[in-house]
Structure formats: C-alpha cells, structure tokens
Prior knowledge:
This protein has helices spanning 3-12, 15-19, 27-38, 47-54, 60-69, 74-88, 90-96, 100-107, 112-121, 125-136, 147-152, 159-173, 180-190. It is an all-alpha fold.
Amino acid sequence: EWPEKVLHRIEELGIWKIINPELRGNDNLKAAFAALRQLDLKAPYPLPLLFSLFFFPLTAGTAEELIIRLNMPKAIAIALRDTMKLKEIKTKLESASQDRLALYHILRDFSSHAMLAFAISCRDENLKEALFYYHYKLRLIKTSLNGKDLLNLGFTPGPSVGKALQKLLEARILGKVKSKKEEVEFIKKYL
C-alpha cells in the first residue's frame, strides 16, 4: 500500500547505484503514489503498474536495457514498453484528447497498467482527464450484438461482418446508439 517506503529503503541500501543511478531521489514518485492511492484500486497494487510508475522518468532506451538486464516478467516488460511508447506519442494524445473515437483508437492496444501510469504521471490536466475517461469509460464500451447476430440479421459471412461490428462499436463510443434495439436499427441501415 505504501510502495515509496520500500523505495526509500532501497535508496538507503544503495541499490540504485547497482540498478540505475537515474532512479535515485525521484520526488515525482511520491506524488505519483499519492495519486495512485486516490484511485479506486485496492492494495496491493499490480506490479506492472508500480514498475511503470517507478520507471516513468527513464528514456525508452534505458528502460529497455533494464527490462533485459533484470529479466523482467512479461507483464511488467509489456507495461514498461507501453509506458515508454505513450510518452513518445504524448503530442498525438493531446491532439486526440477531446475526440472520443480518436482517443479510443490510439489507446486500445496499450496495457491498462501503462495507460494508468501515464495518466497518473501526466502533468497536462486535460490529457490526464481524457486518459482517465478512457480508462474508466471508453475502454469498457462493448456492443450488444456479435457476429452471429449480424449473420442472423442478413449479413453474409466475411470481412463485412467485422467492418460492421467496428462501425457499431464506433457508434456506441460516440453515443449514437445506446441499446441493443438501437444497434439492430443501426445495423439494418448499414446492410
């Protein structure tokens, strides 16, 4: 629940010199962990999230060196790499922060731990708000209809089913359809 206590002890023991001196004395980390405690997550916090917060100040190259050198587990490595990628596309995210659909398409393939770490560490309040909106709302949006339903409505098997489902999901994200009945009406227009 208080990871900064562990990190403080690591610093006292001089372990940062061995792992990476750039990680010493990170004042932003205390604020990040305080912000983490404000979220609706229960301790113990997921390790990929904690590592993403901890390694946030590093460059992508340094983070990759540590992933390899410390032989990090796959889930942590994915979260760290995704966190570094999010830092690289920050400008793109800022541009998309007011566009639900663009935000969804950019963030959907990133790990939720990396996205949360990036949101917690982000200093831009508008972007932070958009990232939390994605995490708590957008990423959870699903369609009621599935491929089998579309086939029953008259679609022929093939790529058109996937395209229609994608359009349906986009309509859900944009709030154009809100119920299964509205989804059926939307799909009938798509036919």
